[in-house]
Each structure stands twice: as structure tokens, then as C-alpha cells.
Design brief:
Blueprint (H helix, E strand, L loop, with lengths): L9 E3 L2 E3 L3 E5 L2 E5 L6 E3 L27 E4 L2 E4 L26 E2 L3 E6 L9 E6 L5 E12 L4 E10 L4 E8 L4 E9 L4 E8 L4 E9 L5 E11 L6 E5 L5 E9 L6 E7 L8 E6 L4 E7 L5 E8 L6 E8 L2 E7 L5 E8 L7 E6 L4 E9 L1
Antiparallel strand pairs: 1-2, 3-4, 5-28, 6-7, 7-28, 8-11, 9-10, 10-17, 11-16, 12-15, 12-17, 13-14, 13-16, 18-27, 19-24, 19-28, 20-21, 20-27, 21-22, 22-23, 24-25, 25-26
């Protein structure tokens, strides 16, 4: 399959420019120049590709699918559909016992107390004072949150401290793995700490919130865990081929959430197969495949910190895949190469788990 080399892609002023490309054909090497893209979009239209955002025009007039996505000012963002609340007492309400909210538990090294004044929502919040250093705190709703393998969940909680600032750790456990997010500089007004994770198992998970500094007073309120509807994570286009070179430009990314691309999606309304490549919100670019809505496999992962207006891309031909990162200045990096079992499906597009912004998209045959 072709590879993305230094002569293939350049970025000038935020526009992706694709010069002549070298393909390796059965009878040798042939040069194909000025190949129009299959699809390209600078997001000036609400429901169709505009053919902009690349140095070689083309790929305009294709219809987008994705009702939860909004186009504005040359960018597109998503608001995925959220399911029912999984927490039963995330708001820390009810009758406290020994300073602990109903169904919550406290770790050693924390003095627990009921708080009725410094609240975010409802009538109460869980208050804690660390009596020893280290990341320790409370488990909201104990350890009985039912989660389903392969489902993406939005996990959030509102936190603040009494004086100064501290690091707050939020842990979402899916019954087999801890998904951890540390937020530094949490101060004396309530702040939402959130992240999105895919559950690796079906079972009972939990949300844990911890502070770091000995003596710190901290407050927790409105813990939430909601599943995201898989089909609403994609904005997609129907093409005629599964073998593509597909790139998207992400202009803004919320830490702990994911944004990138999808290829080889089998069905926009009821997806059961596809490949996603994304910034994971934790300093990595990952490539996953799913062969049912619940059966997900990570194919590749490589460290690459996100910067505004970075591009992420994939070349896919048959079972072979190459994953790329390109900065807005045109610096290109091969993140990983691998193989996939998902070789069919001709729907491509965007992938997003939480309101992140995209500036451009480009799709080309390989």
C-alpha cells in the first residue's frame, strides 16, 4: 500500500495540500498527479461537503449523516446523545451516617461530613478533610454501578476545595480497569471534572473522587455516569470504497475526551463495525476496531500530545493500516502500522465523544 512520505502531504496556512502521489502498481511504479479527493470539507455548509480545506478541490456535494452535530463559523462539533443516569445517589442526598452520604463509602485518611451550605445542586454535598497525604477520598454509590462492555460513558463530578487549590483525581472503574483523570488547580468554586471512557467489561463499576494534600477540605457533588449512544459519536459520508486515505483536523480537544475519525463504518444509523482513530485526551493517538457494537479491540496506540489544529489520519488498504499525525505546520509522524480484521464498509467521517471542534476533513483513494 502507499505510504505517507515527506513529498505527499504538506500543510500551508491550515490548508492540506496533496501534490503528485506515487502508487506502487503490479507492473511497477506509476505517478498519478492531481487526483481529486473522494471527499473534502471546510465545514462552510451545514449538511453537505463543500470541497474546501485542501489544495486540490473536489469531493463536494456529499450529504452528511449525523443529527447531533452542529456546523458554525467554519467548524463542526458534536453533542452526543446521553442515556439514563447510572448513579442512584450521585448528588449525595439523603440521611448521612457518620458523615457519609447514603450508598457512598469513605477511604481511610479522610474525615467525612455532611455539607448543607456549600453545594452545587440539590440540598447536600459530601464534604471531606484529608488527615494524611495522598490521593484518597470517597466512592460515590459504593461499587455497584452497572456498566456494559463496549459502551462509551461520560463520567463527571463537581468538586471544589475550602481554601487554596488542590489536585482532584476522578476514577471511573468499569469493573476491570481504572480510568483515571487528575485535575490540578481545583479551587474554591465548584468545577466540573469530566472524562469519557469505553467500558472494557460488563459488571459493576464505581466512581471515586480523591484529593491529594494533607489537611485539605474538599467538597463533592452531582457525580454522574451516562452511556453515550454509539451512532451519535459519528458524522459520516457514504463513499464507494473501503480503501481510503482519510484525515481530519481537530481544532480543540477537551482533556479526557476523544476526537478523530472513522472509516469502514457499516451502518450510520446502527453501527456494528468500523475503525476509529482518535486523540484520546490523555496524550495518545489510538486506533480501535469494533466488530460488533460491544466487541472493541485496540489495534495501535502511540504517544502524541495534542495541539490545536493537529491532523490525525489513516491509510487503509485491505488489512493493512498506517496511522499518522500531522501538525498544522506540516510536520508528519507515522504513529503506528498494523493490521485490521475490518476490511469492508465504505462509510467515513468524524468521531467525537464530547463537543470537540473540527476544522477540516479530507478523504482520498489509495
Amino acid at each position: 500500500m502507499p505510504t505517507l512520505n515527506d513529498d505527499r502531504v504538506k500543510v500551508f496556512g491550515g490548508l492540506l495540500v496533496v501534490p503528485p502521489i506515487v502508487y506502487r502498481a503490479p507492473l511497477g511504479i506509476r505517478n498519478i498527479s492531481r487526483i481529486a479527493p473522494l471527499a473534502s470539507d471546510g465545514f462552510s455548509l451545514s449538511d453537505a461537503t463543500d470541497g474546501l480545506g485542501t489544495g486540490e478541490p473536489g469531493g463536494a456535494g456529499l450529504t452528511w449523516t449525523g443529527a447531533t452535530w452542529t456546523v458554525a463559523a467554519g467548524a463542526v462539533s458534536n453533542a452526543p446523545t446521553q442515556g439514563a443516569e447510572v448513579h442512584t445517589n450521585g448528588g449525595a442526598e439523603g440521611t448521612y451516617v457518620a458523615g457519609v452520604a447514603p450508598s457512598w463509602t469513605v477511604q481511610g485518611g479522610v474525615t467525612a461530613a455532611e455539607e448543607g451550605t456549600i453545594i452545587h445542586g440539590g440540598a447536600k454535598a459530601q464534604k471531606g478533610t484529608l488527615t494524611s497525604p495522598g490521593l484518597i477520598g470517597f466512592t460515590a454509590d459504593s461499587e455497584g454501578l452497572p456498566v456494559v462492555t463496549g459502551t462509551w460513558y461520560l463520567s463527571s463530578v463537581w468538586v471544589r476545595v475550602g481554601v487554596g487549590t488542590d489536585t482532584i483525581r476522578k476514577v471511573f472503574n468499569d469493573s476491570v480497569s481504572n480510568h483515571t483523570l487528575d485535575t490540578t488547580g481545583v479551587g474554591t468554586t465548584y468545577q466540573q471534572v469530566l472524562s469519557v471512557h469505553r467500558s472494557g467489561a460488563t459488571g459493576n463499576g464505581f466512581t471515586r473522587i480523591q484529593a491529594a494534600t494533607n489537611g485539605i477540605v474538599f467538597y463533592i457533588d452531582d457525580a454522574s455516569l451516562k452511556p453515550l449512544t454509539l451512532s451519535t459519536l459519528f458524522r459520516s459520508l457514504q463513499l464507494a470504497t473501503a480503501d481510503v486515505f482519510h484525515l481530519v483536523q481537530v481544532s480543540a480537544l477537551t482533556s479526557g475526551t476523544q476526537a478523530g475519525l472513522v472509516i469502514r463504518l457499516d451502518n450510520a444509523a446502527n453501527p456494528t463495525k468500523g475503525i476509529v482513530v482518535y486523540f484520546d485526551g490523555a496524550g495518545n493517538i489510538k486506533c480501535d476496531e469494533f466488530t460488533t457494537a460491544a466487541a472493541w479491540t485496540n489495534l495501535t496506540s502511540g504517544a502524541k500530545a495534542f495541539t490545536a489544529n493537529d491532523w490525525v489520519g489513516i491509510e487503509a488498504k485491505g488489512t493493512a493500516i498506517n496511522i499518522y499525525h500531522i501538525t498544522n505546520a506540516g510536520v508528519k509522524t507515522l504513529i503506528a502500522s498494523g493490521t485490521t480484521t475490518v476490511t469492508t464498509g465504505s462509510i467515513v467521517g468524524l468521531f467525537d465523544t464530547y463537543g470537540n471542534n473540527f476544522n477540516a476533513m479530507y478523504t482520498m483513494p489509495v
